[in-house]
Design brief:
The chain is α+β, with helices and mostly antiparallel strands. The chain has three helices and two strands, in the order H-H-E-H-E. Strand 1, helix 3 and strand 2 form a beta-alpha-beta unit. It is globular, with a radius of gyration of 15 Å.
Length: about 80
């Protein structure tokens, strides 16, 4: 089983003199958060969102687990 590269996942930027390495670092973060198919609901213990508006939207959809605003995890 492969383990997650948390240093890459939580990197604050992907600056690199080599543009190919830069894009590889940046795409690693994207790839680490995508889950193919679906997972059982019981596996979800909470969610991170970009801002309070997204938190409110998720709550309005009926999400009943912990929601934390953590803008640094998101692009843009």
């Amino acid at each position: 089983m492969q383990s997650l590269d948390y240093q890459a996942i939580y990197a604050q930027d992907w600056t690199d003199g080599n543009k190919y390495v830069y894009f590889e670092k940046k795409s690693t973060k994207n790839a680490e958060v995508l889950i193919p198919g679906q997972i059982p609901e019981d596996y979800i213990i909470g969610a991170y969102v970009k801002n309070e508006e997204d938190k409110k939207s998720l709550q309005e959809l009926g999400f009943d687990r912990q929601i934390e605003v953590y803008a640094e995890l998101f692009f843009g």
